[in-house]
Design goal:
The protein folds into two domains: 61 residues, no CATH class; 95 residues, no CATH class. Strands 1-2-3 form a three-stranded antiparallel beta sheet. It is mostly helical. It is elongated. The chain contains seven helices and three strands, in the order ααααααββαβ.
Length: 169
């Protein structure tokens, strides 16, 4: 039955298959109650708008970032939640999603972004959601976070040394 096939695709939420259905619009897969594929898509948009209104969010204020807000925090904050205010990055609204080049979601995403061509390392770019130190009292804790959120590339190769760490017995 065509409705069952549509419900199966909807249940597994396979983006590639849903995109193919929307591109090809096969008549046998159109769910009952819809005149055509455009009517089905408009009904889906209407349901999304109604859900926003039911939640008290005006459409003009609905953003992807509100739905896709990062929860980046030091792993210790899971063991000791009271420390989260000192161990977490700001709750940044992110671009991207699971099926995009810029993979990012509230609980998942790229831990690093790296673009480099062999032999052209001086042109390489790098991002990470934290800083060079995982220690929350270090001045380098979360120093790269803003560039990671904004997708602002930073050089891959190190520049001139600005700091030196010396360990004395």
């Amino acid at each position: 039955h065509p409705e069952n096939r549509f419900l199966e695709v909807k249940r597994i939420r396979a983006p590639a298959e849903v995109a193919r259905l929307l591109d090809t619009r096969p008549a046998g897969w159109l769910p009952p109650g819809h005149a055509d594929w455009q009517a089905l898509q408009l009904a889906a948009v209407d349901r999304a708008i109604a859900a926003l209104q039911d939640a008290g969010t005006p459409l003009a204020q609905a953003t992807w970032g509100q739905r896709n807000t990062a929860g980046v925090a030091h792993p210790i904050s899971m063991a000791v939640p009271a420390l989260r205010p000192w161990l977490a990055a700001p709750a940044d609204q992110l671009a991207g999603d699971a099926h995009m080049p810029r993979v990012a979601g509230p609980k998942f995403g790229q831990s690093e972004r790296l673009v480099v061509s062999p032999g052209r390392e001086e042109e390489g770019l790098y991002n990470m959601p934290g800083g060079q130190s995982g220690h929350p009292l270090s001045p380098f804790f979360l120093t790269g976070h803003g560039a990671w959120v904004d997708g602002k590339p930073t050089p891959l190769l190190p520049g001139a040394a600005r700091y030196t760490l010396r360990l004395h017995p």
